[in-house]
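Chapter summary example.
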Amino acid sequence: MKRRLIPFTLALLLGTAQAQEKDLVQYVNTLQGTNSKHELTRGNTYPTTALPFGMHTWTPQTGRNGDGWKYQYFKEHIRGFQQAHQCSSWTRDYAVFSFMPMSTLVVDENKREAKFSHANEVAKPNYYKVQFDNKITTEISPSERGAHLRFTYPKGEKSYLVLDGYNRTSGVQIHSKENKITGWVSNGEGFRNNWKSYFVIQFDQPFKSYGTWQNRNNVIAADSLSAEGRGRGAYIEFAAGAKVQVKTASSYISMDQAELNLKTELGADKTLEQTKAKAAAVWNKSLAKIQVEGGSKADMETFYSCFFRASLFSRKFYEIGPDGKPYYFSPYDGQVHAGYIYTDTGFWDTFRAQFPLNALVHPEMHGRYVASMIDAYKQCGWLPSWSFPSEAGSMIGNHAISLFTDAWAKGLRTFDPNEALAAYHHEAMNKGPWGPANGRDGVKEYNELGYVPYPKYRESTAKTLEYAYDDYCGYELARLTDNKKYMDIFEKPMYNYKNVYDPSTRFMRGKGIDGQWTKNFDPIEWGGPFTEGNAWHYHWSVFQDTKGLINLMGGEKNFNAKLDSVFSEPNKVKVGTYGGMIHEMTEMVMANMGQYAHGNQPIQHMVYLYNYAGQPWKSQFHARNVMTKLYDATENGYPGDEDQGQTSSWYVLSALGFYSVTPGTGEYVMGSPMFKKITINLENGKKFVIDAAANTKDNVYIQSASLNGKVYTKNFLNHSDLVKGGTLKLTMSSKPNEKRGLSLEDRPFSLTK
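The structure predicted for these 753 residues follows.
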């Protein structure tokens, strides 16, 4: 008996261990980056409970209705649990309503809040739980367009639930005999036509009493079954000491579709535990697209927490109709269309890493995304630049073309390139009505002078640099598709970065309409001709032609010395046109890495530029140093704004050992992987393995490399090689190999050879 029992026991233990290895959700902390405030951000995140790229997310709410800071870790009270969509604390949310359980009926959001402790909080992608100090417990598990919640009240105490209609207009209808509430909210900005988000809420317990209320002056109407207007909501009382399960789903199309979403996504789940388990399975499958091994538990937590955050944007805005096909309400023209649409992202942030990561690990979805941008153009008249959920035109640049070109270069042929080029040409030759990135700010001068003049246009040098990169993408997509018309149009302006380079200071600078450099230049001064940064940060924004920049600076020696200086310069700030310290400045000073400001996007690619100038080992050192020093999985886990998955995606790609310096080329520039073994489980069924067996916190340097058994000296990887599957074997060491990867053939893409 014993001889038979031992193998069975071992097999059971082995099976259990293997099952645990696949539980990647355990490593995710959705509280990562939540200890943020206006003056200092450590991510500006909130504890999102959602499925990957889900249409709706859910979160506890510590801030007031309408406050961009939904949840701040240092606060001690929660005032509701929201359906949310916010992609940045600096933008308002939309389609929001919230629940708040309590033992005494209080509707005023400032008075109904309840105290809690993080010791009584669980924050995972598939499950959020908190017990207030008053012993009321809330649990949430998500579906794509809804959530399963459970409220547990102390035995013998009254059991109320308040539904808050947030700000703007809303409507509620109480169906007391069906234990159900239906309604709609229309909060949000920027919609071109009137719209509503319809919701249905199903309870598993009968109502003891009920009524409606409005949150402008917190007036209650007992026994009222319906209400419409500004901030209308509802309340329900259950039997004392109740345990209530609540299933809810929403739709932008109709109430019937909201009911269908509820039935399709949550109808089969009798208990919250079923929804929780299903959501865990979805997340584990998504997170398992990249499996990392051979790192510390803390490293695993940081990686999968970042990968989780990178897997939230852009959000699905489409729904599945009765015929099983996707369709959507367009936030651009207010009509219902067949097909796919996504929203909630700002391309200024996310073209750099978040979308390249999606193209690698979610190519089918990314193919749908870039195709949907053509539809958005047709419905809106402009390509997306900052969709939330309609077009806001925020920040700078016309980076939709970067997504098109990068997708095409990576074999995603889901759109008509001629339509994409025509849409981009319209974008590049006109100024739209909304924000600086809706069309092209300073377009007339940019086309006539080859640069955007300062101070006629704020952030002009940053705009010039990013327009030039976008024009490269326009040229490259045209080249890849044999479209000579647009090749001719964009071939010259893709070099316009040269027009804002001052050889006397070796910096990019503001230039007046008269061709004169802006006076009293100081490279540590923020603002003015730059966007949320200074000359040290924007000097490197020549993604398409690093070799050209090297030549402008007088060669590789000068280039590398200036790269080194970014880290050795004092971490001092001049506030410039901002007039005071903004959080990005504070975060750079706190990082104490000289003028390197990783908390904002403009400089995030800079550590990889040594690969272009004969010192690739420095990229290996700095990439690992930034990952180790500036990221962790705690509430303080980011060095600044997380920004719709971009700062997380930088970490995920960098932890793989490479980064997308120039989206549109199909290349990833090499750094130093964080783990001993990384397996990318590709959507096509193949695997790409990064084998760095000797990797440690000290062994950050690549001594040698082989790709599929052949010596590999290049400082970049091709997307086409990754998707074929294979093994990149890296021999790691604590000392740099200063002779590897120095030939011109080993260097990444640059327009100038």
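To summarize the output: The chain is about 30% helix and 20% strand.
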